[in-house]
Amino acid sequence: MRLYSENSSPFSAPVRIAIYAKSLDIEIVAPPGGLRSAQYHAINPLGTIPCLILDGGARLPESSAIIEYLEEKFPQPRLLPEGAEARANVRLLQRIGELHIAAQTVELAQAAPNTEESATRLTRLVRGLSALQTLLSGTPFAAGPELTLADCQLAPALFRVPRVVAPLVNRDLIAAYPAVARYVETSRKHPAVARVLDELGAALDK
Length: 206
Description:
This protein is mainly alpha-helical. It folds into two domains: 2-73, Glutaredoxin, CATH 3.40.30.10; 84-205, Glutathione S-transferase Yfyf (Class Pi), Chain A, domain 2. Helix content is 58%, strand content 6%. It has helices at residues 13-22, 38-43, 63-73, 84-110, 116-135, 149-169, 178-187, 191-205, and strands at residues 2-4, 27-29, 51-53, 59-61. A hairpin with a 5-residue loop joins β3 and β4. The radius of gyration is 17 Å and the shape is globular.
């Protein structure tokens, strides 16, 4: 299998965490010709990353779909807990990380400053952080004592907040949410998370 990814992307990062955590032999490459190239659009008509090419040639874009596929295809080590309620909680935290944190940081960085659009994105981001403050379990990882798919989404999404958003709003948003701040520190102790956050940080520093 081959994963098209970029180290700077908060949407590619969750997939790489899952790959590293499961020690999967998946080739990770940049989109040929760049994200907007005709060559890459022939591979993935959505023109987005990440995109996983399966062994049979099928194309699977979208971060959440990819990590769910990898969990079903390679169930060990487990990244989803037992039980319907526990799994629902993991997926809820995944969605908050993807839609309310990662997506809002991207849109906020692209919005013109001091506009209605930037204010809306900031409000949504703060709402997501506030929800996490309530929902995080107080354990080393988002949904318990072990790494789950929720951490694959949340850890890189939250990593970008001080790096990307803080310079735009002149304040440390995460510091206002102690449970979130603790989670940021403890989640990074997992080797797969640390590896991806190092990749993400190096890409953002360029």
